Amino acid sequence: MFVASDTVNEYKSEDEAIHVIERRCKLDIDAPRLLKKKNSLNRRERTLHIEAYNETFSNRVIINEHCSYTVHPDNEDWTCFEQSASLDIKSFFGFESTVEKIAMKQYTSNIKKGKEIIEYYLKQMEEEGITFVPRWTPPVACKSESSTCHPRRPVSPAINIPESATKEGLSSKEILNTSSSPSEPTAGTPDDKLDADYIKRYLGDLTPMQESCLIRLRQWLQETHKGKIPKDEHILRFLRARDFNIDKAREILCQSLTWRKQHQVDYILDTWNPPQVLQDFYAGGWHHHDKDGRPLYVLRLGQMDTKGLVRALGEEALLRYVLSINEEGLRRCEENTKVFGRPISSWTCLVDLEGLNMRHLWRPGVKALLRIIEVVEANYPETLGRLLILRAPRVFPVLWTLVSPFIDDNTRKKFLIYAGNDYQGPGGLLDYIDKEIIPDFLGGECMCEVPEGGLVPKSLYRTAEELENEDIKLWTETIYQSASVFKGAPHEVLIQIVDASSVITWDFDVCKGDIVFNIFHSKRAPQPPKKDSLGAHSITSPGGNNVQLIDKVWQLGRDYSMVESPLICKEGESVQGSHVTRWPGFYILQWKFHSMPACATTNLPRVDDVLASLQVSSHKCKVMYYTEVIGSEDFRGSMTSLESSHSGFSQLSAATTSSSQSHSSSMISR
């Protein structure tokens, strides 16, 4: 967790009784990552006070923590420890409840980890023979009734701090004096060079060129992306997926980060509970690890009723469940890296096809499978270490012909396919999995807790209308809204302002195409919004709407006025900004088509291109947006309060540009 710190201020009294250090610390956590910490040690009073507060987003989130170590009033050989913390979330882009949950979870785990760290080092000191640390005495302590002067007590022997502890970011003073900086293996390293031990422990063998690519891509993200920076292991996966071509890796990584933000994938394990149908009938689950230490996922595809699951849940629920499996896989890789003491960045998947037949080739089920493969390939590259396909039946070549074009060449090389009972012979399962953990349904002795699947009762099936509504509900289960923008059909949002000097804030990503962003003001309300059915554009888009508010007979300057200069936003950019309103009335935020959308290049065919290529318009843009109105008294720091954190990423430029006026601010990052 603790990445680095800089000493801001330090004070020592002449008799060395009082020692105060102020540090600016950098943490690798989901919560605000820059904080200031003040340690005040008073050897004369035998007290240690530690104060910490955040710098990152300090105008939106206020975090204070105080720890104190004092002498117990009843026994001076005992130490009292008190710890208190407060969290005040003023505003956080609509993620207030999510941030609160993360903070509580993080704080609880920190307290537990702090106790472990103290106990660990106390035990180590005992093993080194240090069972007593003499109390501080003044340099010259003379008693008035006696001329005898007591010499200064000797300093306790030096303590050998393990190298692993220093790599985790704890200084020797912090190890002895505080538990306020719980430590996990560091996820950050110096900007100019990676530590050799860090590479060996967490990343694996890297050539100087590969190390350089990782550092350059990480620095680019730190300069342009104000959101959560991916860990080195995750950045490295995208580099490996593109053979360390930094431009190609940056392109797919930025697209993935935008996708993760849109669907709040970082929080899926904490905020989403799979439906009971999935828990009962999805025949897959985690099962120990393989011989290389990779987490092992077992999928009994032949026993799974794919048609029943799609009919009962729809595509979106299945996709979200697969995403949660992948997120859990990333978490297990980190855990196994700690357990085995070597980098483990991928998992092994064992797929049992016993029972696979023609019903598994049901077209909507295959379509769902292809879409899932496409999403996983784009956002979780190089996470599959090995795929063991067992008991492949005669129908398997048909399924493989449909699926294989959507799987990357590097991934296909990791597939091992066994027909019948071939997996029991030489070169079979025993080469990759210890005998003790081979599942019982494959002839092993280990009881596997993976659900057996079976047919989903038809009573659980949903109608097409119900599934469509459920898909939309899942798609929009985010504070962000998705909207489609067409040539000649902008998307517009109406905001009514009662009190002048209110602040309209916005945060949007341009997911596809180039758009022009405008803000208008009108004294009269527009007519009820006209929702484009999208029929004219031959598009069906779950969660992507198109609303037009400005009547075609309205004239600019007479019926409504422009309060902001138009802002051109390119595909992949993310924009945050604000406007302080001068007048009450009706404000209209407009996203308007600008030019032909850029065509994304990829080595793999897209599912939509294969299954629905005729449905996609070449004159379509897509934006994901969030708006909020804040009272001026709550908008601290006026235009700069948003700490404009552009998390959009265009591989073309690392520059950040801004357009600001006296009453507004808007920033873009590429």
Automatic annotation (TrEMBL):
Q: Which part of the chain is the PRELI/MSF1 domain? A: 1-130
Q: Where is the GOLD domain?
A: 476-629
Q: Where do the segments described as Disordered lie?
A: 165-192
Compartments where located: Cytoplasm; Golgi apparatus
Entry keyword Phosphoprotein:
yes
* Gene3D superfamilies assigned: CRAL-TRIO lipid binding domain, GOLD domain
Q: Which CDD domains match?
A: SEC14 (cd00170)
Primary localisation category: cytoplasm
Question: Which InterPro entries does this UniProt record tie to the protein?
Answer: CRAL-TRIO_dom, CRAL-TRIO_dom_sf, CRAL/TRIO_N_dom, CRAL/TRIO_N_dom_sf, GOLD_dom, GOLD_dom_sf, PRELI/MSF1_dom, SEC14/CRAL-TRIO_domain
- Tell me any Pfam family this protein matches: PRELI
Question: What are the residue boundaries of the CRAL-TRIO domain, all occurrences included?
Answer: 274-450
According to its UniProt entry, the function of this protein is described as: May play a role in innate immunity by inhibiting the antiviral RIG-I signaling pathway. In this pathway, functions as a negative regulator of RIGI, the cytoplasmic sensor of viral nucleic acids. Prevents the interaction of RIGI with MAVS/IPS1, an important step in signal propagation. May also regulate the SLC18A3 and SLC5A7 cholinergic transporters.
> How does this polypeptide assemble, per the annotation?
Interacts with RIGI (via tandem CARD domain); the interaction is direct. Interacts (via GOLD domain) with SLC18A3; the interaction is direct. Interacts with SLC5A7 (via GOLD domain); the interaction is direct.
This chain belongs to which protein, by name? Answer: SEC14-like protein 1
Native source species: Chloebia gouldiae (Gouldian finch)
